[in-house]
């Protein structure tokens, strides 16, 4: 199997919408190219931040084709999630046919059954493709916790499982996974406000959210952390953290799109039932964003 594509900074790219609620493919391609030009190594569409649960199958496939055309040599690594295992398998096959070079495999939407069911679900997706895959573990969002032993079990069964995106919020999970699987799997950070901690624990990649507005700062922070340049990383992290924490609340999609809008990289529009932020949450976020922009470091420009 070729080298894992799940390395370095990988934007969990947002899905742009037009006024009529259709996907804005023109901006989507432009936005992906902008992030690749800033040093990102690939792109992950159709995830939680990409509002994947609100997109139908045909919209998802069209998004993948747009991104494959836009990203050139950079891999497109879509999130594979659906209500049923059958739907997830169909999307995985369509993604492979569309030219994607890897998959991020999620547990099923809505159903929160026993762990054995979740293992069976992702196992079916892994078996349906020859592409390298990354398991996405996000217990707070999906109600399913792929424990380190469960991850090790999946890695033993499926050769094309090459990475795990760890979003439990506990940096100790990185070392717990590595203790069981060694270098068999790459571990990536999945929460913006634990990237430095995750890299220190052994993570080799970052599935990032605020990268949609600040790709240069994201790439620089990850590279400083990976190189062990602690003082420089800490200084940039202090500036970035208030923004990165916008990725960790239930309204993270709306908030990240708000940041994008204020830096001239997208519109706030989200797909219903989501609505744009309002009230105290919006005012608090605007204060954070304005402070960050007033103190913009060279690495973020």
Can you give me a brief rundown of this structure?
The protein has 301 residues and is of the alpha/beta class. The chain is 46% helix and 9% strand.
Throw out a few tags for this protein.
12 helices, alpha/beta, TIM Barrel
Describe this structure in words.
By secondary structure, the chain is of the alpha/beta class. The protein has a domain at 8-102 and 192-300: TIM Barrel (Alpha-Beta Barrel), CATH 3.20.20.70. The protein is 46% helix and 9% strand. A 7-stranded parallel beta sheet has the order 1-7-6-5-4-3-2. The longest helix has 16 residues, at 279-294. The chain is globular.
What topology emerges from the helices and strands here?
Layout: E1 8-11, H1 25-37, H2 57-71, E2 79-80, H3 85-97, E3 103-105, H4 115-127, E4 133-137, H5 139-142, H6 148-157, E5 161-166, H7 172-181, E6 186-189, H8 195-201, E7 205-208, H9 215-226, H10 230-244, H11 252-262, H12 279-294
Parallel strand pairs: 1-7, 2-3, 3-4, 4-5, 5-6, 6-7
Q: pLDDT average, as an integer?
A: 95
- Percent helix, as a range, is 40-55%
Shape: globular
Series of secondary-structure elements, N-terminal to C-terminal: EHHEHEHEHHEHEHEHHHH
Percentage of residues in DSSP E strands = 5-15%
Largest sheet features: 7 strands, parallel
Strand order within the widest beta sheet? 1-7-6-5-4-3-2
Give the helix/strand class: alpha/beta
Number of strands: 7
Poorly predicted ranges:
none
Q: List the total number of helices.
A: 12
Distance between the termini: 38 Å
Q: Would you tell me which CATH topology of one domain applies?
A: TIM Barrel
- Taking all Cα atoms into account, the compactness measure Rg is 18 Å
CATH superfamily of one domain: Aldolase class I
């Amino acid at each position: 199997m070729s080298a894992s594509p799940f390395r370095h900074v990988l934007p969990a790219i947002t899905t742009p919408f037009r006024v009529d609620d259709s996907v804005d493919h023109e901006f989507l391609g432009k936005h992906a190219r902008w992030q690749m030009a800033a040093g990102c190594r690939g792109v992950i569409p159709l995830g939680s931040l990409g509002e994947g649960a609100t997109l139908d199958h045909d919209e998802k496939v069209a998004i993948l084709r747009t991104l494959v055309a836009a990203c050139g040599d950079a891999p497109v690594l879509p999130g594979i999630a659906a209500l049923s295992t059958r739907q997830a398998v169909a999307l995985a096959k369509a993604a492979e046919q569309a030219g994607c070079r890897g998959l991020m495999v999620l547990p099923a939407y809505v159903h929160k059954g026993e762990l054995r069911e979740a293992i069976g679900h992702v196992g079916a997706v892994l078996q349906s493709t020859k592409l390298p895959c990354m398991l996405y573990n996000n217990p707070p969002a999906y109600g399913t916790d792929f424990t380190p032993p469960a991850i090790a079990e999946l890695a033993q069964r499926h050769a094309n499982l090459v990475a795990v995106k760890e979003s439990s919020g506990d940096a100790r999970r990185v070392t717990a996974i590595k203790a069981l699987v060694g270098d068999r799997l790459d571990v990536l950070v999945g929460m913006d406000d634990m990237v430095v901690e995750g890299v220190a624990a052994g993570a080799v990649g970052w599935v990032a959210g605020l990268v949609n507005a600040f790709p240069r700062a994201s790439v620089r922070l990850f590279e400083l952390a990976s190189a062990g340049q602690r003082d420089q990383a800490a200084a940039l992290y202090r500036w970035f953290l208030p923004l990165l924490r916008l990725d960790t609340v239930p309204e993270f999609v709306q908030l990240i799109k708000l940041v994008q809008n204020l830096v001239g990289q997208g519109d706030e529009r989200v797909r219903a039932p989501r609505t744009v932020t309002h009230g105290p949450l919006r005012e608090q976020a605007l204060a954070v964003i304005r402070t960050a922009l007033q103190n913009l470091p060279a690495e973020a420009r």
